[in-house]
Design a protein that fits this description.
The protein is mainly β and 87 residues long. It has no helices and eight strands. It has one domain: Sandwich (Immunoglobulin-like), CATH 2.60.40.4070. Strands 2-1-4-7 form a four-stranded antiparallel beta sheet, with no helix packed on it. Strands 3-8-5-6 form a four-stranded antiparallel beta sheet, with no helix packed on it. A hairpin with a 3-residue loop joins β1 and β2.
């Protein structure tokens, strides 16, 4: 099994609980993750109704640390959920 580490920071470095909690769309959110081996990564964003609103990544990525910024500007108010899949 391949390991992935995940850390989410929102706005001015405020840490966000990523265990089933939603993210607010108010500020830019940095999504940092680490791949132990090269993987195909798909990172999707869903609204609170379960509709996919964005795919941030859908490509093969090298092993190591990666940081993706998500800007929820233009999305309706409320929260969003992140789903990351590696294969």
């Amino acid at each position: 099994m391949n390991a992935i580490g995940l850390e989410i920071k929102q706005g001015k470095g405020k840490r966000v609980n990523n265990k089933g909690q939603g993210l607010s769309c108010i500020e830019v959110t940095s999504i940092k993750f680490f791949l132990s081996v090269p993987e195909h990564v798909r990172l999707d964003i869903y609204n609170t109704k379960g509709n996919k609103v964005s795919t941030l990544i859908n490509k093969k990525m090298a092993a190591g640390e990666h940081v993706i910024d998500f800007d929820g500007e233009g999305l309706p108010g409320g929260g969003v959920f992140l789903q990351i899949n590696c294969r």
